[in-house]
Amino acid sequence: MTTSLQSTLDYQPVCLKFGTSGRRGRVVDLTQLEVYLNALAEVEYLQSLPLSQGGVAPGDEFFFACDLRPSSSQFDGAQQGRGEIAQAIARALAEAGMRPVYLGQIPTPALSAFALERRKGSMMVTGSHIPFDRNGYKTNTSRGELLKRDEAPIQARVDQVRQRVYSQPWVESPFDRRGMFKSGHSELPATNPAAFESFLRRYTDFFPAAGLKGRRFLVYQHSAVGRDLLVELLRRFEAEVVPAGRSETFVPIDTENIESAQLAAIQALADDAWQTHGPLDAVVSTDGDSDRPLLLGLEPEGKGCRVRFFGGDLIGMIVAEFLGADAVVVPISCNDAVDYGALKNVVAPKTRIGSPFVIEGMQSALAQGCKAVCGWEANGGFLTATEFKREGRVLKPLPTRDAFLPLLAVLFRAVEAQTSLCALFDRLPPRFSRAALLKNFPRPASLSLVRLFSPADNRVRELLFKGGEGLALAAGGGAS
Predict the structure, then answer these.
(1) What is the DSSP letter of 242?
(2) Which of 129, 232, 267, 449 is deepest in the core (most CB within 10 A)?
(3) What is the value of pTM for the model shown?
(4) C-alpha span between 198 and 431 (Å, rounded)
(5) HSE of 77, CA atoms in CB hemisphere, 13 A
(6) In the predicted model, what is the mean pLDDT of residues 34-58?
(7) Which regions of 155-303 does DSSP assign to beta strands (E)?
(8) H or E element at residue 470
């Protein structure tokens, strides 16, 4: 009797699941086998789609990149020797008949912009902002992000591929009993550097040259994959840049939930830079894969300064005004200041949380004839569904989270307004909110809470209260 791969595995596989954007899991569960079969299934799914719907063709280039987490491109001894996730992606792409092109350790939006401009598929190995003992990857079609409607057919394909790979004779399988490649360590393909420079040009072609001259910024680098790109970008606009806080150990930064210890660390870096280099105009940074901005203003205090954190949902408001948007799409978790300020007449119906829902909302705005459509999440990740024009310059659409556009737009807006960052944000409607996170909260309990506060009729999309009475609004605008 032939021994199958499945019967030889000496661990209990944990299946990768979709989150709000991409797939993530604990590194100890992310065997190369699990990554490989999911990635292979997703590519096969894309190959089944027409090109007009984001499909890809065998033989095409397929771009991939990764962040700076140890497990993304190396084996991690602290995580039971798991890792080299990018290598598993590369092998899956090759065995699906694609031509894998490695773009290196670059920001997620840089990978997406490069691939989408060429109408090619892409995968980013990243765990974004979550702790270092977790990781994952995100797949993009040749037209943009995977949407929620793609998840069910992809999962069906994963089940088929899993059965196919598990049933292979173990002696013929490339995987060992631990779900890792029998061949051990493998090198990634040579890095194609074109995406790095292309992403810089995206912004140097849109924002005015020397537009930040005379401004001084602290770039908190930590372990963000875009840390060097951000420094280079600001310097191309002739800003004075002070890099600080660079770390070779992964630092999880959740731009929606900056904790007091992280704020204190940034304050210490700002104090040191202020004393050494002089007054600063801002502290700028991103999360791990650089698709979410981190922005802090500085207010003089004594002989130094006090940092002031600005939430991503507030950043988005200033960016949308700067761009002249005629439709903005945000999830229900965003600060409701957007409903009271200059954007109140262009706010589309709020969406569920997650970039796929924001993208679907932007698509609806386009279908209604809007010409300048953008969106953002509470974490600050900014998305554009159309071209935007300013002073004869054109910014191409990038319908995925980006940290660089919002950072630059706010900095340039402050220059135009001849004001400080703090004063710029003080002009927004005075609303108050703060995000927090209960760590390791049981998923069954959270789902139970969602069910408790969800309407029994799934057609209901919004509930308004007035005069002690409730008005339920269904999808499409109907009331009951």
Answers:
(1) E
(2) 129
(3) 0.90
(4) 38
(5) 0
(6) 97
(7) 216-222, 240-246, 282-286, 293-301
(8) strand 469-474
Joined together, the tokens standing for residue 348 give 């589309």
Check the CA dihedral 190-120-291-228 and report its sign: positive
Six-digit token string for 290:
């650089």
Give catalytic residues, as residue numbers: 128
Which amino acid would we find at residue 203?
Y
Handedness of CA 168, 169, 175, 179 (dihedral sign): positive
Cα–Cα distance, 290 to 378 (Å, whole number): 15
The residue type of 248 is E
Q: Which domains does the chain have, with CATH numbers?
A: 5-195 (3.40.120.10), 197-310 (3.40.120.10), 312-426 (3.40.120.10), 455-480 (no CATH)
pLDDT digit string (tens) for 263-279?
A: 999 999 999 999 999 99
With 0-12 / 13-18 / 19 or more C-beta atoms within 10 angstroms meaning exposed / middle / buried, residue 478 is exposed
Q: Is 28 in contact with 131 (CB distance < 8 Å)? A: no
Q: How far is CA 213 from the centre of its chain?
A: 29
> CA-CA distance, 431 to 428, in Å (whole number)?
8
Closest C-alpha to 406, from 330, 325, 320, 339: 320
Kindly write down the DSSP assignment for every residue of 92-107, as one continuous string: HHHHTT-EEEE--S--
- Specify the residue for token string 């089944």: 48
Average the pLDDT over each of 23-27, 29-33, 294-298 and give the range with the smallest value.
Answer: 23-27
pLDDT value at 179 more than 80: yes
Bridge partners (DSSP) of residue 222 are: 246
